[in-house]
Amino acid sequence: MFVKSLGVDGAELRPLDPWQAEEFFAHMERGREFIGQHIGFADKAKDLESARDLLQDYADKAAADTGRIFGIWLDDKLVGGVLFRVMDIPQGRAEVGCWLEPAATGKGLITRASRILIDWAICERGVHRVEWLVSSENAPSIAVARRLGMSRDGVLRSYFLHHGVRQDLEVWSVLAPEWES
């Protein structure tokens, strides 16, 4: 297992594995309402078994080289995470996603962790395009995309249903030559 420091505040980025399902589920319980405002991720971990299944799905994706999931720990407490929801190495494309519980917001954790993922995808894996898909209502996530130097490619109007409400989906991206410069 690796641990990657996210800075001087003691925050760390670590792989999130199925054996950590209890800690992951407790984290989801603490942040479920906040996390679920804009994404369905928290809905997928509704109990311990489904939390373990979600982490196992990502372990299977990691084994197939089609996705990965990492937790963000602050003072040795899981407070959020980042992931490659999709990785298509032959096509040179990956999609980064994130979540965070409310107590950990405003510290730059998602931006710092996402930089590490994007840098690895582009510099180590040869990914050409990294995408960030976000509800138009999710201003904090859009701000992260901007801080990462991503460009807004467009808006897919009324693209998905979230908690009974149609949402627009913004597509943001950064290309390898832009990231390296």
From TrEMBL:
GO terms for molecular function: protein N-terminal-serine acetyltransferase activity; protein-N-terminal-alanine acetyltransferase activity. InterPro entries: Acyl_CoA_acyltransferase, GNAT_dom, Ribosomal_N-acetyltransferase. Keywords: Transferase. Residues 11-178 form the N-acetyltransferase domain. It comes from the Bacteria. One of its GO terms (cellular component) is cytoplasm. The lineage of its organism: Bacteria, Bacillati, Actinomycetota, Actinomycetes, Pseudonocardiales. The keyword Transferase applies. This is Protein N-acetyltransferase, RimJ/RimL family. The keyword Transferase applies.
